[in-house]
């Protein structure tokens, strides 16, 4: 009989990887890699993104395993960070040095940890709270290297991925998850519901990937256009927006990471409310 801790860790890792795959396969996305084109990216392909996602399964499984039944602490924060850095190295080995999922490792890794702390029984509100509390602990072993996101955050005075996590992922809780659920409630197909969730994120998030590539003007343009397409409900306009983002070298990579994290939380929420895997885990407690 399999151990409940191992069973949930595998389930959480599978859900995390599946969420990354869902995000990259979602089509059509503005400025991002999808099943039709590579958006504003010269160094990324869908095949590379899929290989990268699959390479991270062990990373997420290890994070879930060490977090299972624990509480936020300095030692746990540093253990998660070490596992995450190993995952980044594995990602770079898989992609030949291309950064495909560094932001997603950070965000989803913390959420995997929060979900595992509750042994798969916590609701989203509790998971993001625990993830935020964990993120606020310092990592004394973190290399003293400023990332593009950190530099952009400091230059323009906006919240980056770190602040988003430390605050308990407010854009997921207040923007992308409500939009995902509302779109489904309106009877939209899952692909459209996820696209609406992504557009809502682009329209509201100070995406440091956009700022890094195009500065404040690009961010203002991206937010305005995403809000316009969202209100129109037209996938044809979304295709036109992809052409515009590609032409202007706009890539909402931070929003894409938040969408993948949203999809992960959605899967974990489904697990809580009666998923078969939950029953399996409960049966071996």
UniProtKB/TrEMBL annotation:
Catalytic reaction equation(s): 3'-dephospho-CoA + ATP = 2'-(5''-triphospho-alpha-D-ribosyl)-3'-dephospho-CoA + adenine
GO MF, one term, reads: triphosphoribosyl-dephospho-CoA synthase activity
Keyword flag Aminoacyl-tRNA synthetase? no
Q: Name one Pfam family in it.
A: CitG
Q: Give the enzyme's EC designation.
A: 2.4.2.52
| InterPro entries reported in the protein's UniProt record | CitG, TriPribosyl-deP-CoA_syn
Picking any one GO biological process from the record gives: prosthetic group biosynthetic process
> Quick check: keyword Nuclease in the entry?
no
Keywords of this entry: ATP-binding, Nucleotide-binding, Transferase
EC class (word): transferase
State the protein's name.
triphosphoribosyl-dephospho-CoA synthase
- What is the organism of origin for this protein? Peribacillus simplex
Taxonomic classification, please? Bacteria, Bacillati, Bacillota, Bacilli, Bacillales
């Amino acid at each position: 009989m399999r151990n409940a801790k191992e069973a949930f860790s595998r389930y959480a890792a599978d859900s995390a990887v599946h969420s990354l795959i869902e995000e990259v396969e979602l089509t059509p996305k503005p400025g991002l890699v999808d099943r039709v084109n590579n958006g504003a990216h010269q160094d990324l392909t869908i095949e590379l993104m899929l290989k990268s996602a699959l390479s991270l399964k062990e990373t997420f499984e290890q994070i879930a395993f060490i977090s299972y039944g624990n509480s936020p602490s300095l030692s746990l924060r540093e253990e998660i960070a070490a596992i995450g850095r190993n995952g980044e190295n594995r990602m770079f080995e898989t992609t030949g040095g291309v950064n495909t999922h560094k932001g997603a490792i950070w965000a989803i890794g913390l959420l995997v940890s929060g979900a595992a702390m509750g042994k798969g029984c916590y609701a989203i509100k509790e998971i993001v709270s625990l993830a935020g509390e964990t993120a606020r602990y310092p990592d004394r072993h973190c290399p003293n290297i400023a990332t593009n996101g950190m530099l952009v955050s400091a230059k323009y005075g906006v919240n980056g991925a770190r602040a988003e996590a430390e605050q308990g992922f407010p854009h997921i809780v207040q923007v992308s998850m409500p939009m995902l659920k509302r779109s489904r409630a309106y009877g939209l197909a899952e692909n459209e519901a996820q696209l609406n969730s992504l557009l809502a994120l682009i329209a509201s998030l100070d995406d440091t990937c956009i700022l890094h590539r195009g500065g404040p003007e690009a961010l203002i343009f991206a937010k305005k256009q995403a809000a316009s397409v969202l209100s129109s409900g037209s996938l044809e306009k979304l295709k036109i927006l992809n052409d515009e983002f590609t032409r202007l070298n706009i890539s909402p990579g931070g929003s894409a990471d938040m969408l993948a994290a949203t999809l992960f939380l959605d899967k974990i929420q489904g697990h809580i409310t009666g998923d078969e895997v939950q029953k399996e885990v409960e049966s071996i407690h």
